[in-house]
Amino acid sequence: MTLHRWMIVLSLPTLILIFIIPVSAATGPVIARFDLEVRSEFDKFADLDIAPFCRLGNTFIAEVSPAELREIRAQGIGYEVLDTEPFSRPYYIGTVESLPSRRVPAPDLERVTEAAGLAFYKALSEFDLEKYQACGFEPQEVGNRKIPLVYLPGGNLIANVDETAVDPVRDGIVAAVDQDSVYAVNTRLENFQTRLTLSDSMNVARNWIKARFESFGYTDVTLSQFWCSDNRYGLSGYTDNIVCRVEGSAYPDKVIVIGGHWDSIVYDGNDPYVFAPGSDDNGSGTTATLEIARVLAGLTPKKTIIFIAFGSEENGLTGSWDWATDAANAGMDIELMINLDMIGYTDDTYPNVGCNYYHSYRAGAELMAEMGNEYTWLVPDVVLAGGNSDHYPFYQVGYNIAYADEGDFNTPGWHTVLDLTSRMDFPYMTEVIKMVAATTYTVANYPSPVDNALARDVGDGQSLQVEWDAQTDPSIVGYNVSWGTTSGNYSWSQYVAGGSAELSTISGLTTEQPYFLTVTAVDNEGRESYVKPELTATPHIVPQPPTGLTAEPGIWQVDLTWSANLELDLDHYNIYRAIPPGAPILIESGWSGTNYSDTDISSGIMYDYQITAVDADFNESDYSTIATAAAATFDQGVAVIDVTTNPPSVAEREAFLANVLGGIAFTRYEYNTAEESLNKSILGQYELIIWYDDRSSGVIWKDEDFDKLRWYLTYNTNVLLTGWRVAFGLSELTSPQSFSPGDFLYDYAGVTGSEEITDVDLQSAIGQSGFPNMALDPDKVFSVWDGKMGWIGTLTAPLGEVIYTFDSYSGANTGKTVGVRRDNTTNKFAFLSLPFYYFEDADAQAMMSDLLDWFGMEHTCDCTSFGDINQDDAINPVDVVLLVNYVYKNLDPPLPVVSCFQGTQAVNGDYNCDGDINPVDVVYIVNHVYKNGVGPCNPCLCNPYPGGCP
């Protein structure tokens, strides 16, 4: 029967259930997102040797195999699956703001995810890139090119430009930028007719650009060759980046790259082999690179400058990808990459110019904007960069970038034969070049930003201490520390002499007033770091509450950790504990470290912990935030982690669990894996965890679940994992799937593979290894399924003992494994890949009784002793007399007998389990003793046989 036929006759609730069961799922590699902003997470991911193909800040996107996903999960690294059909359509990257803010004609892109101001898109259909770009949205196609895994540190870095400072050299460089020179070079590039990659005139244009660099007196000018394939025109071959290197005098290993692409193309129906003038795109950027090289010629920068005319930008940024990747693999220390692409056009009198940046490094674009404000009549806009030019590969491999482009996009000329010098604004373009020339000189010759700056509270209410790493530049003579009460505005400063200085204490501050502080290096010419970190700190008298407090269960103890306070007069910490809703009680005073183990605990108690900091004058901070934990004692019996969603209802599940567990006391926890994190403090209290998951839709487990269950199973503990479609969720929603060492099911259940049987074909489960058969309950199974169940996970388990097999209605699946158990020495683990709730209660109860015996749980009631009032090991006439005397003559009562798990008492003599001893119970015992009637009922429900013991 097909799904479509069912839909004709099903009611709405059943339709909802059926719709959430996917008929099939993708197999093989997937595209996944990894958020690695926390350095420790980044380092763990880096150890796995998985190469991403796209970065959005410190969020990386990679194509990963099922085996790699399993290893990622085993390491506890979080991820999100973005696409189960990798590269079935092209991917693109662009700014988050661009697409919604522009009136793009057709929504051909799906925004898959976003981070760091960038969006990752997938084409929904045949994608007309030129159409989007003509509307001002300039996405860059993201191919499956592997990129180095490089961490970009955060922090608030801001440009540091003193507009009152005099720099005659920089002033002279800006003044030397010449509009006539700019016009002449740009016109010459246009006159090549085309600079199309692999065209006949390509080499001629390349040689002219190389000779132009050499004409300025540069001697290290080379061609960096790379292979290019032109998919549009079906050609492939070698082309070149033109690279001009100027060695730095003080820091040759610190590099500034500045460039723009020299190739051109048209997409307007004309033949780009004949005419593709590319005067703005990107004759303007190439011209600017050459002009800046000209005005800097003869000067020896402190840091190395590399000018590059990039080849084949119009064919997937091929040249910049090749050069940036080689630089990253070689470990080149590029302090800033400056890109110039389309800087010569404006369509109005408002001279805005884009100063673009990526991720947390806004400072380079801000520096460029400040140079524009100081030296030109431009109106700079500091904005997030897209992925549409040669800066993008440098960012992807881990370098900071700044990118200059025209404020008014050259829509009518872009990629057409109308991209001509006659349509360009050369006064405007000259101003842009001045701005970038000043930026290049500043980065190459001014001190670099200080590293590892930190502000600390002295603790006297009026002083702060600033620390940093001293720079090794011999020209550094001191450091400026500045501070103020608003961000970016510094009212006071202090000079610290000495190139090796790394400490400054500032006093006279206002208690409890937040301050913003910066530190810059100063060289022997009075120049400061061109970028500076901004710190925040507040002078206090009383210490601040400790932060980062965590509480974790240890074996009969709770382990606390927290972040160290930075107050210089800190003396110790006080540790407080409470049992909610009680008040905190001091349990440890004078503690000097940032970790503590509380061993004075009781089993089964959740404790609230708080920490305070105490200074040398015995001033004590407020309490920290609360961290809660219980010790791991594994002595509280059974916990059911119930992740099932309706149907069945909560009440139905609770009743079913009570029956199945046969009177054993248990604690049930609702757990929604989409929103919550499994609590180790809960797990650590129990001897047996039953993970019960009868959801009809397979749900991928969270990484935290694996981590915490692995922790739990390290000890002498037991787990029963049971539910509908659990194997499907554990196999990343793929079927069939194989498991290997490191996978949860392999490690604990010995399962080496799974396959989901989607046919409605299961009619019962056949017990193996002495386990009883289990029949489906027709009153629970959906009526349209006629007493059978579908979407059952079968298992391959050569390392585990089979305890249940598939009883197939069609016969096709008979004998396939659906239940296993495995004794792992330090733990026992059972897995039933079955819709647990949908079996007969008595059958499930019998199965559970056998499993509890195997787990070593003391769970069975002694039915004989329960009815044996005088405890002589038999139910006989003596017991009849005792009960009659109690009921009718008020003589000695029957003995209370502890007959259920965990101390649950049943009163001996209550033969019908109605909670009272009365004449009805006399009738029961008389019938049992003299007429062979049924024995007493089992008040603990631990016996699967109704009416008493068999």
Topology:
Elements: H1 3-9, H2 12-19, E1 30-35, H3 39-46, E2 54-56, E3 59-64, H4 66-74, E4 80-83, E5 91-95, H5 98-101, E6 109-115, E7 118-123, H6 129-134, E8 140-142, E9 157-159, H7 168-176, H8 179-190, H9 202-215, E10 221-230, E11 235-246, E12 251-261, H10 279-296, E13 303-310, H11 318-329, E14 333-340, E15 352-357, H12 363-375, E16 379-384, H13 391-396, E17 401-406, H14 426-445, E18 451-457, E19 464-469, E20 476-484, E21 492-497, E22 503-506, E23 515-523, E24 531-537, E25 550-554, E26 557-561, E27 570-578, E28 585-591, E29 595-598, E30 607-615, E31 627-629, E32 638-642, H15 650-660, E33 666-670, H16 680-683, E34 688-693, H17 703-712, E35 717-723, H18 726-730, E36 737-738, H19 744-749, E37 753-757, E38 762-767, E39 774-775, E40 792-796, E41 801-808, E42 817-823, E43 827-832, H20 841-855, H21 863-867, H22 877-889, E44 896-898, E45 905-907, H23 919-931
Parallel strand pairs: 12-13, 12-14, 14-17, 15-16, 32-33, 32-34, 34-35, 35-43
Antiparallel strand pairs: 1-3, 1-4, 2-3, 5-7, 5-8, 6-7, 9-24, 10-11, 11-13, 15-17, 18-19, 19-22, 20-21, 20-23, 23-24, 25-26, 26-29, 27-28, 27-30, 30-31, 36-37, 37-40, 38-39, 38-41, 41-42, 42-43, 44-45
